[in-house]
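Tutorial handout. Part one gives the primary structure; part two gives the three-dimensional structure as tokens.
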Amino acid sequence: MTRRPDPAAAAEARVRQLAESFGGDPARWPEADRPGAEAWIAAHPAEARRLLEDARSLDRLLFAWEAPRPTAAVTTRVQAAAPVQVRQSLRRSWVLTLTGGAALAAACLAGIVAAPRLVDPVLRPAAAPVYASDPDSILSEALTPWEAPVAESAMGVRS
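Part two.
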């Protein structure tokens, strides 16, 4: 027979995990987990108080810690190396700017040169309107300018 997990134990484990991950202040916990965790805290105030106080004491230690200040020797070494690195990065940025600008200019020029050649012959203006008396001749005259370039290009005929 399979044992079912205890929901209270699962809720306690989740609250413990939240307190260890996000600290002792439930306001900093993910919003999706907060309602269930707050319900467990309200149902088990003594256990919750102990668990949250442990997390808050760790929070106080972490918030009080400050990174050590660099020594004068480290500061001098970093400042001495900085101008060389700045000059190198400026040189790289100029090269990238020039090559990027040249590539953009070449692409624009290629578009300007190639655009007239890319116009589809079907888009040429149709001939002057033709007036006829029967509907079949009107239809054939109307479709002729649009079908002819397609048929010629399909057969390999150049205009």
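Part three, for discussion. Residues 72-114 form the longest helix (43 residues). The helical segments are 7-22, 34-43, 45-64, 72-114, 135-155.
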